[in-house]
Design a protein that fits this description.
By secondary structure, this protein is mostly helical. The chain contains 13 helices and no strands. The protein has one domain. The longest helix has 25 residues.
Amino acid sequence: MQYHYLLTGLDDLQLGKKTALQEADLLALLEEQMTPADWQYILQLRKRGDDADIKALMQDDAVLDRFHQTSLSEDDFRTQLLYEQGMHSRNRFVRAWYEFNMNLNNVLAATVCLKHGYDVSKYVIGDNEVAQLLRKGNMSRNVNLVALLPDLKEMIALTEIENLLEREKHIDALRWNWLEQETLFRYFELDNVLAYYLQAEILHRWDDLTREQGEKIFRQLIADLKKDVNFE
């Protein structure tokens, strides 16, 4: 379905600029204007690893058996389940978005592990070709990995940014650029609506960021880093 009327009526989004629509207002508008089937993809993009249905999967014996066969933390395994769901979406754009983010997060985790000599397999999730290659190490010299990830050098460079807030902003910029490239030659299609929502979500994350909120995010990032990189 084409969304010419919807997309032409929305404000242009620019990285680093505030958005005109609040998140709740944007969601209400999208739900009103999108078909029920297409709206489900917005809901899919909004899912997180700590959602109730993802947690419920951890009660399934087969899923628990898979979890115990890995060396991942429960949080990381739930994130893997989330990515797996996204990468099995009926929509090509949604599948690509989830795989891009899994690859990005895996590169960041693997880079830190290799830098400090830790076990990459404890922190790389999923089983796509990128994940398999990352577990073998030697990322920048792996020709196959470089071919699969055109942004590999940029991803690796993110880990060199010491200020965690600045690092998060650069990560969001990389995601933003991916969305721009992915919809470059698509006009008024569902993909453009999904990309618009995701870009708005990025901007909403940084809207009205006060110093107090910034310090709160910084503390949360530190806590997440300690949790995600809880090396023995």
